[in-house]
Amino acid sequence: MTTTDQRPLGSPFSATSTAQDVTVGLDLSGIDAVVTGGYSGLGLQTTRALTDVGARVYVPARRPDVARTTLADIKNCQIIPMDLADLDSVRSTAAQLRESLTKIDLLMAVAGVMATPERHVGPGWESQLAANHFGHFTLACELHPLLAAADGARVVVNSSAGHTLTDIRWHDPHFRTGYDKWLAYGQAKTANALFAVHLDTLGRGDGISAFALHPGKIITALQREMTLQEQIDRGWVDEYGTLTATDFKTPAQGAATGLWAATSPLLDGLGGLYLENCDVAGISTPETSMDDGGVRAYAINPEAAARLWDLTLTATGATPIP
Question: Is 235 left (phi over 0), alpha (psi -120 to 50) or beta?
C-alpha cells in the first residue's frame, strides 16, 4: 500500500448502501468466515448477510448464551466462547478453530468497546487497547495458518473516525499518567488501522490482504457505557433515547462497508487501505473534522504500523507471522 492508493475507487455503493445491497447476487458457498461480535449490532448484520449468501460463519462470543439466543434463527452459524480482553481465551478459541477448519477465507474484526471507564486487564493494559487491538491482533496471528491456507483470504478490521482523536501514545499507551476515555478509544482505533497496514504487508506472500474501515456513526450496543446525558449532550439522542441526529446510519448501512471490504472485486490486489462509505477513503488533514471523513496520515503510516506490530507482538506473546 502507498498513500497514492488511499483514494476512492468509484465504488457503485455509497454511505446509504446496506449490507443487503452489497451482498445481493453473491454466492459465498464454501466460504468460511469468522466474525467477532457477530451477534450484536454491526456484527449481527454482518453474520446475517454472509450466511444469507451461503457463507459458513463462526462467531466468537464473550456472552455465548446471548449469542445462541440471538442467532438461533440463523443457519450455517456456530458460536465459540471468547473474550477479546483475555488472551488465554483468544488462544483457546483460535486452537479450536485450527482443529476444526482447514481454512478461513474471511476474518471480520467487528467487536469492540468505546469510551469505557478506566479499567486495566492482563498485566496492566488499558482495556480499550487490549480488547480492540491486542485481542484481534492475537486472534489474527493465531489464525494465520488458516488464513494462509485459503485462496486469497481477507481480514477486515473495524476502526473508526475516532482514530482522528489521537495517534498512538508511544510514551504512555496504557494511560498510566492519567486516563481519558475518548483518547483511549481514539488510540485503539488508530491501532486497528495500523494493524491492518502491517498485517497486509506480512500477509501478501500468503495471499492475505487486510483492510481497516470506518463503518459510520450508528447507535448500537457500542454506546452501552455512555450515559444517556452524554449522548444527549453530543446531539445524538433526545431525553427518551430516541435518535435525533441526522448523520447516523442504520446498523444495516453500518455493516455495508465491512462487507464491501470482504467481497468487492474492486479491492483485488489492494490492501492495507482505510475504507469508508463502501469505498477507499481519502487522506484527511489535521484540521479536518472527524465528521468530514478521511483517514489521518499517521493511521496508515507503514513505519508506525511496523513499530506498533513489534510492540504488540512483544506485549501479547502472539505467534509471529513468518
Answer: left
**pLDDT at 287 > cutoff 80:** yes
pLDDT category of residue 232 using cuts at 50, 70 and 90: confident
Map residue 317 onto helix, strand or coil: coil
Q: Where are the alpha helices (DSSP H) in 204-264?
A: 228-233, 251-254, 256-263
Helix/strand/coil for 134: helix
Domains, the chain, ordered by start = 3-316 (3.40.50.720)
- Contact between 207 and 313 under an 8 Å Cβ cutoff? The reply is no
Instruction: Single out the catalytic residue among 185, 240, 274, 298.
Output: 185
HSE-CB at 319 with a 13 A cutoff on CA atoms is: 13
Is 185 one of the catalytic residues?
yes
Cβ neighbours of residue 164 under 8 Å, at least 6 residues apart? 186, 284, 288, 290, 296
Residue of 251, 248, 253 whose CA lies nearest to 231: 248
Mean pLDDT of 170-179: 96
Could you give phi then psi for residue 50, rounded to 5 degrees? -70, -45
User: Are the C-beta atoms of residues 61 and 39 closer than 8 Å to each other?
Assistant: yes
- Mean pLDDT, all residues of the chain: 94
Do 156 and 258 contact (CB within 8 A), yes or no?
A: yes
Q: Which residues contact 62 (CB under 8 A, 6 or more apart)?
A: 81, 82, 83, 84, 111
- Compute the C-alpha angle 155/160/164, nearest 5°: 125
For 246-301, where are the alpha helices, taking DSSP H only?
Answer: 251-254, 256-263
CA distance 115 to 165: 12
Instruction: Please name the residue that has the C-alpha cell 488472551.
Output: 87
Calculate the CA dihedral of residues 176, 303, 3, 285 and round it to 10 degrees: 30
